[in-house]
Amino acid sequence: MTSLVAKDIVAGYVPDLPILKGVSLTAETAKVTVIIGPNGAGKSTLIKAVAGLVPVSSGTVTLNGTDITNPAPDKMGAKGVAYVPQSDNIFRSLTIRQNLDLVLRNAGSEAAARRDALFTQFPALADKQTERAGALSGGQRQFLAVAMALAINPSVILMDEPSAGLSPKAAQEVLEYTRALTEQGVTILLVEQNVKQALRMADHCYILADGQNQVDGAAQALLDDPVVGQIYLGGKRVAPA
Amino acid sequence: MIQNIVDGFLVGSILSLGAIGLTMAMHMLRFANFSHAELLSVGAYAALVFDGLFSALFPVISTAIGPLSLTWALTLATILSMGITGLTAIAIDKLVFKRVRAKGGELSMVFASFGVAMIIRNILGLIFGLDPVLYSQDIVFAILVSADPLLLVKPDQVFTLIAAVIIMFILHLVLSRTTFGYSLRAVAENPTLAQVSGINLNRMIVLIWLIGGGLAAAAGVFYGLTNQINPVLGRDLVLPIFAATIVGGIGSIYGAVLGGFLVGLAANLALVILPSGYSPAVPFLIILAVLLIRPHGLFGEERA
Amino acid sequence: MIGIISYLVFFATVASILSIAVLGLNLQWGNTGLFNGGVVAFFGAGAYGTLILGSAPQDGLLGGFGLPYLLALFGGMVIAGIVAWIVGLLTLRLRHDYLAIATFGVAVAFENLVRNAAIFGGAQGIRGFERPLRDVFGSGLAYNALFFVFVLILLIATYLFLERLIASPFGRLLRAIREDETAAQSLGKSPSRVRLTAFIAGSVIMGLAGGLYATFYAFISPQDVLPILTFQIWAMLIVGGAGNNKGAVMGTFLIWAAWTASGWALSRFAPLDVQLYTGSIQFVLIGFVIVGMLMWRPQGLFPEKLVVSQSAKTGR
């Protein structure tokens, strides 16, 4: 069963200058799919194109067979797709509780129960719920962003470099938590710079360069592949986890 | 001196009401809207029209409330005017700003807003005449609160200040207690994230114009009640209202409230040392001072 | 016949002076994307500066330095430049709204200052300026024609200067900044510095126009520096086509002709009780011209012929 499928995506901020030049990708249900590649490869653009923030000029995106190409970004949540941007992914001027209430505002009578459930899931946030989110540490911000994404009960979460700017320890925690979400049946599609860590926690990996697919395969296989290691993983073979 | 402070608070409350809508629209649509102050004029005149209509239809409600010159007819007219002015603001956006946005980019919007201001101001002048008018011909005497230091206050002024503070308090409750308020603040802080959090930006723009227009109408009526109504009301208030948003930091609603009071106070206190002819220039000096000391205002954030 | 020629000379002189101001605005707005909401402040600084520096001493008025005319005119330009430098320094590093508001504010403050300060002549303005070479050419048509030629020479000089400027590497830099600040930054240039230079240069040109205007009437008062003049100058640029100097000049003549013609027609044909509202009607009309142009033909009647970059085409 396939979940999220992007096929031959051509997209960019300006019509005549596509950043993505025909990228295809499949994110299997309840698996972690990671996109890696050099700077400027179009990794973030791809995830934004799926989220509806960058216009797709040709190609299709489907979710369980339904076409969701070029969605209105504010309608993605209703389709079960959550998007966690790389930075500025929480509202700093709102309190933690207000951040969650905001994303839960259409949940009606369930909202309070769901918020409490999220606080049970993220006890560190529960302790600080009346504090402004801007006061949180980097790692806690990332957890709040994940909690906000989970609030809409998504089937897919798109994440843009969740470990960026975090300490190695916090990065590890966030990635492990993300991995654990698949046990709840959530599909994860993420972009990562932190290649080794990403490959260790992912199921499948796509390598992009210059807006095109280069290689893809099981994350473990790519980790072990000497040629891939040479070209994309900085020349050193990475020991399996 | 004490008179200047009291007057400053009064003017400040009016500027705050005007600045709230301006700062929201300016932050979200990213242009300095020079036509916002004209919404105060629209509101003041719309209330004048409905006040006349209600008083003629139901003479019972055309008597003054207590010591005020305000009547129930004008109260009703003001509420109606807030709605109408909000709708006017939406209509202007649909007719002009939205199209210019689609065609020419952000910077042309500033020009367009000047054009819109010019059109509204002069059409009001053509309809209602260039001479100032008042809501009530009855003379309401100021109350001598204290002879030394001299302090004269009109009942209408007290009412205006209280009403403005109540309106702002209601807005505060909405912003701090309701998910709609959170959405407004979310949009002000980070429109893209607000959008991926499921907020429909186009709908928010409409609501911001509605709220901004409504608050501007209240400000216009309060100004008319404590001064007079004339077609160049917007021209006279545009710079102080801009100063209030800059003092508070563009995009900050609470900053706009505080900025309004600060500009009102500063402008009135400046009259202690400056001849009154110079008062139109005071907001500019305040703007310069803020840009020198704290360019992003009291609560503003740097956003290139 | 002489009457018509006199009038045409008069019209062409004023239109040429305004053209110079519009060219200054074009450098700021059309070429660099800087919004100047207070053109009159810089125009006025040039006008007041020229009269104060060039006139003979008068009781209670500032100045009366009696400088040679060309020096006084140059001094007026320098004063306009200093005002621009102060406003620009404070606002050009911030987002563009600040410049719009601050320039609008400086115009309000300028008008307020000259209206209230006795040393600037107050509401009566400054008179008694000796027009240069007046004793040689008298005060008739010959003098006016000569002055027109002088203005025309300065207009052509300004035009050629700006054409050269925008064709130079500096001009390319201005357009790069207008269209894509980050790209310009990556060229290793400080955009705020380049913008400040362009803003001051444009304001100095407006100051020149103001100086000529004051020379022409040998008089300046707060009535000459009302916000409506800023508005007229914009209308001229927008109608002509921002970015294009030829268009700017044509737009000036067109709008100035339309403005004078509409004023004349209203005073001639409108009933007496409507005439009180002539100004309001004209303001509404010019408001519609600006809004209409921005909505339906933002490139103006005579658009810029340069190749527009990708990002500008799609409109940000």
How would you describe what is shown here?
The complex is a heterotrimer of chains A (241), B (304) and C (316). With 241 residues, chain A is of the alpha/beta class. Chain A has a domain of 162 residues: P-loop containing nucleotide triphosphate hydrolases (Rossmann fold), CATH 3.40.50.300. Chain A contains nine helices and ten strands. In chain A, strands 6-7-8-3-9-10 form a six-stranded mixed beta sheet, sandwiched between helices. The C terminus of chain A is likely disordered. Chain B has 304 residues and is mainly α. Chain B has a single domain, classed as ABC transporter involved in vitamin B12 uptake, BtuC (Orthogonal Bundle), CATH 1.10.3470. In chain B, 73% of the residues lie in helices and 2% in strands. A two-stranded antiparallel sheet of chain B has the order 1-2. Chain B is globular. The mean pLDDT of chain B is 90. Chain C has one domain. Chain C contains 14 helices and no strands. Chain C is globular. The C terminus of chain C is likely disordered. The interface between B and C is large, with 53 and 45 residues.
Q: Topology, pairings included?
A:
The complex is a heterotrimer of chains A (241), B (304) and C (316).
Chain A: E1 2-11, E2 20-28, E3 32-36, H1 43-51, E4 56-63, E5 66-67, E6 81-84, H2 96-103, H3 111-121, H4 123-126, H5 138-151, E7 156-160, H6 168-181, E8 187-191, H7 195-201, E9 204-209, E10 212-218, H8 219-224, H9 226-232
Chain B: H1 2-29, H2 36-57, H3 72-104, H4 106-128, E1 143-146, E2 151-153, H5 155-177, H6 179-189, H7 191-196, H8 201-226, H9 233-248, H10 253-273, H11 282-293
Antiparallel strand pairs in B: 1-2
Helix pairs in contact in B: 1-5, 1-8, 1-9, 1-10, 2-3, 2-4, 2-8, 2-9, 3-4, 3-8, 5-6, 5-8, 9-10, 9-11
Chain C: H1 2-31, H2 39-54, H3 69-91, H4 96-116, H5 134-137, H6 141-167, H7 169-179, H8 181-186, H9 191-217, H10 227-240, H11 245-269, H12 272-275, H13 278-296, H14 310-314
Helix pairs in contact in C: 1-6, 1-9, 1-10, 1-11, 2-3, 2-4, 2-9, 3-9, 6-7, 7-9, 10-11, 10-13, 11-13
